[in-house]
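User: Sequence in, structure out. Go.
Assistant: Echoing your sequence, followed by the structure tokens.
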Amino acid sequence: MSETEDFDAPAVMSPTVSGQIGNPDVPIASTPGASGPIVLQVGEQRFYGSKDILSGSEMLKAKTNEHWLSGKQTDGSYFLDADPAVVKHILRFLRHGVYPLCYDIAKGHDFALYAAIHRQADFLLIEKLTSWLGDQQYFKAVTVERSARSWRTTRGLLGFLVRAIRTPSSSISLPGGLKGSMKAQGDAEVEYEDCPVLSTLVVKEETVFHRKFCVDE
């Protein structure tokens, strides 16, 4: 049983269902002007949609024209020799005007899939989609922003404390990591004592999606 996808359905609905609609022995209504959707047979998968959706592609618009019957099968569907995994991105763009963002937080952009979609969109004469992919606008659609913060402290997880060094004429708290000597009140020499310092660096990485670069408005 072949899978089908209705690319004219609302976005909130699952695009993929199994089997044919209605009686499988009855030819599918896919002739322009007839009731029911136009059916595209892509590999072993079927996609359903309206003539208005397909008109976004000059090639599909011509292919499903009643005067061009090339590729039309006996059941009324139209055969398209392409990869269903690629075509679904193209039909989603035709339906919603949303450019394909093939990005994974762990792996990054899927450049092989971008290349396949770009080639198919060029073949189907979808100018906006071809230009968007050719100009690599997907780099603008998603960005990774990093920030860093560091500080040093003598009080932390290891319990390091600054010690107060007392002399006969003064009481002074000195930061750790300093060596040497200085003169305090009464010309008494102040001794220094090493104190461990805890240094901390926190790096934050955030993936940001920029909608305006992904929607054809």
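User: And one key feature?
Assistant: The two ends are 38 Å apart (CA to CA).
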